[in-house]
C-alpha cells in the first residue's frame, strides 16, 4: 500500500489461468516477465524460475482442471514478488508429510513443495482433502529489514476480468498500537471506478486523526465530482481494546472471535452521492485473538471460516485466498483484506 505523487498505487494481483498442461510454458513466461521488473540478481532469478516450474507443474499434475495463479509485484521497502497458486484438486491429508523430499502421489521425485519452500523467502500453504490447495510464496529483491509491527494485514485485490485497473482500492496506516484502514469500491468498474476509489482514499489519508464517521462525511463532501463509491472505515486501538468503524454501502466486514463471528453492519448509500443524514461511529470490543475480514461485493458474503479447520494459523493472505477461491463472483472487482494482531 503506497502513495506516490499523491496517488494510490497499490499493486493489484494479476490473475493467470492455467487450465491444462499445454498452457504451462506460456504461463511461466508471463510470470517471468513480471519478475524481471523487480530486478532480481541472476542467482535469485534462477531460484525464481525453479519455483515457477514447480508450482505450474503441481497445478497441472494433481488436477485435470489445472488451477490459477495470482501474482503481484511487492513495492516499497520490500521489493519482490508474491505468488498465490490455487487449485481445486484432491488436496492433502497432511501438509507436513507431503512437504518432505521424496513424498509424491504421482510417482515423481517428490521434491516440488520442499524445493519451493527452501527457495522462497516466505512460504505458506493450506490444503484439505477433497477441497484443494492454496500455496503462497514471496521472493524479495533483498532481505527486508524486519520492523516491529503489532498488526499483520494481508490483501488480495483483483480487477474484474477484462479490465486493466481495479475499481477497488484500500489504504491503511499503523502508528504504535493503532491501525487505521479504509476499503473503497468505486461504482462500476475500470478507470472511472478506480478514480473514485482513489479520491475517497486520498481524503481518508488526509484526515487520519478524525473518527470514522467524521471521515466518511468529509470523504462524501470531497468526492462529489466522482462517480461515487461504497466504503468501510475502521480504527483499531489495541491499547483500549476497541474497534471503531463506520461503513456506507455494500462493503462486507466480519469480526472473527474465538467462539463466534459478528457481521459489522453498514449504512445504505453511496459516498459522494447520497448518505444518510444521521450516521454514527460503532464501537465493539477487540481481543488479541480476533481477526477482522473486510471485502468488496465481488465476493459473496455467505462464508464461514468454520469450514476450514485451522485456517486462522495461516498467513492472512492465505485466509483471503480461501475466501476468494470459494466465494468470488468472477464478474466484478474483488478485494479481500484480513487483519489481525501479533501477540
Describe the structure.
The structure is a single chain. This protein has a five-stranded antiparallel sheet with strand order 3-4-5-7-6, with helices on both faces. It has a five-stranded antiparallel sheet with strand order 8-17-16-13-14, with helices on one face. The chain has a five-stranded antiparallel sheet with strand order 9-10-11-12-15. The protein folds into two domains: 3-140, Histidine kinase-like ATPase, C-terminal domain (Heat Shock Protein 90, 2-Layer Sandwich), CATH 3.30.565.10; 151-341, Phosphatase 2c, domain 1, CATH 3.60.40. The chain has helices at 24-36, 42-61, 95-99, 112-119, 190-206, 212-222, 316-327; strands spanning 3-4, 7-8, 14-18, 67-74, 80-87, 122-128, 132-140, 151-158, 168-175, 178-186, 229-237, 242-248, 252-256, 261-263, 282-285, 291-295, 334-341. The protein has 343 residues and is of the alpha+beta class. Helix content is 25%, strand content 31%. Helix 1 (24-36) runs antiparallel to helix 2 (42-61) and helix 2 packs antiparallel against helix 4. The two termini are 23 Å apart. Residues 1-8 and 102-110 have low confidence and may be disordered. A hairpin with a 4-residue loop joins strand 13 (252-256) and strand 14 (261-263).
Say what the CATH topology of the largest domain is. Phosphatase 2c, domain 1
Number of strands: 17
Q: How many alpha or pi helices?
A: 7
- Binned, the helix content reads 25-40%
Distance between the termini: 23 Å
CATH architecture of the largest domain: 4-Layer Sandwich
β-sheet strand percentage:
25-35%
Q: Which structural category do the helix and sheet elements fall into?
A: alpha+beta
Number of domains: 2
CATH top level assignment of the largest domain: Alpha Beta
Mass-distribution shape:
globular
Average of the residue pLDDT scores = 90
| Uncertain residue segments | 1-8, 102-110
Rounded to the nearest angstrom, the radius of gyration is 20 Å
Return the string of H and E elements: EEEHHEEHHEEEEEHHEEEEEEHE
Strand order of the largest sheet: 3-4-5-7-6
Amino acid at each position: 500500500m503506497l502513495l506516490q505523487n499523491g496517488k494510490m498505487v497499490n499493486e493489484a494481483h494479476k490473475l493467470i489461468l492455467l487450465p491444462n498442461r499445454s498452457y504451462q510454458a506460456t504461463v511461466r513466461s508471463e510470470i517471468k516477465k513480471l519478475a524481471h521488473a523487480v530486478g532480481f540478481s541472476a542467482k535469485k532469478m534462477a531460484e525464481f524460475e525453479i519455483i515457477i516450474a514447480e508450482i505450474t507443474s503441481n497445478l497441472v499434475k494433481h488436477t485435470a482442471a489445472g488451477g490459477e495463479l495470482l501474482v503481484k509485484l511487492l513495492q516499497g521497502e520490500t521489493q519482490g514478488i508474491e505468488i498465490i497458486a490455487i487449485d481445486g484438486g484432491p488436496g492433502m491429508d497432511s501438509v507436513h508429510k507431503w512437504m518432505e523430499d521424496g513424498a509424491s502421489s504421482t510417482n515423481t521425485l517428490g521434491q516440488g513443495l520442499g524445493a519451493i519452500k527452501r527457495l522462497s523467502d516466505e512460504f505458506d500453504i493450506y490444503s484439505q482433502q477433497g477441497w484443494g490447495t492454496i500455496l503462497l510464496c514471496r521472493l524479495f529483491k533483498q532481505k527486508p529489514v524486519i520492523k516491529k509491527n503489532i498488526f499483520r494485514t494481508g490483501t488480495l485485490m483483483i480487477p474484474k476480468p477484462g479490465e486493466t485497473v481495479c475499481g477497488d482500492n484500500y489504504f491503511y496506516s499503523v502508528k504504535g498500537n493503532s491501525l487505521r484502514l479504509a476499503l473503497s469500491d468505486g461504482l462500476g468498474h475500470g478507470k472511472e471506478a478506480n478514480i473514485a476509489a482513489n479520491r475517497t482514499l486520498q481524503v481518508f489519508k488526509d484526515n487520519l486523526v478524525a473518527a470514522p464517521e467524521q471521515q466518511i462525511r468529509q470523504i462524501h463532501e470531497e468526492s462529489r465530482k466522482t462517480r461515487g463509491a461504497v466504503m468501510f472505515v475502521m480504527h483499531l486501538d489495541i491499547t483500549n481494546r476497541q474497534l471503531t468503524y463506520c461503513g456506507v454501502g455494500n462493503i462486507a466486514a466480519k469480526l472473527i472471535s474465538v467462539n463466534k463471528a459478528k457481521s459489522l453492519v453498514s449504512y445504505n448509500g453511496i459516498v459522494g452521492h447520497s448518505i444518510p443524514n444521521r450516521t454514527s461511529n460503532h464501537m465493539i470490543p477487540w481481543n488479541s485473538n480476533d481477526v477482522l475480514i473486510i471485502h468488496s461485493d465481488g465476493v459473496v458474503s455467505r462464508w464461514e471460516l468454520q469450514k476450514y479447520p485451522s485456517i486462522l494459523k495461516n498467513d492472512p493472505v492465505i485466509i483471503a485466498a480461501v475466501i476468494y477461491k470459494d466465494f468470488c463472483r468472477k464478474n466484478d472487482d474483488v478485494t479481500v483484506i484480513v487483519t489481525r494482531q501479533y501477540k
